[in-house]
Amino acid sequence: MNPPLILASQYLDQPAPLVFNQTWRDKLNKLPFPDSLSPVPEPLRNTVVASGKALPCSGIWEPVELPMRKSAPSLFSRSAEAPDGPLPPAGCMNYLHGGSDAPTIEVFDADDEIEEVATQWRLIWKDDRYLDGSIPDEESAYTFP
Fold this sequence. Notes:
The protein is mainly β. The protein has a domain at 42-68 and 86-130. 6% of the residues lie in helices and 19% in strands. The strands form 2 sheets. Strands 1-6-2-3 form a 4-stranded antiparallel sheet, with no helix packed on it. A hairpin with a 5-residue loop joins strand 4 and strand 5. The longest helix has 9 residues, at 22-30. The protein is globular.
């Protein structure tokens, strides 16, 4: 069995590769995927961090839309507090590292140009597997490009 292929650098200060070509498609087509996936669980309490702010922990984070605030100072400002319960996703989930700044997301604008946009990131799953400094057995064979 081939070791899992990780599409991210093993170093925090290096971005993940942006190239997605036929080679990557071929590799991904060979990976085993389940027939169906369970729905993403809703957190009991939402932990939300804005782009540019420090993330409190490593884990799976999802960009989300926060509801509009209904009172002053502006009818068009986003709520500072994230309500509990479901929040509409605004992009793809990412594994983000605690202590680093929450990133922006890239979206296509009306002219099909890529635009960098600030967003709010909601914690879906807190990763505490590495707190003791060890690497879990299931990850010991991972390889990095």
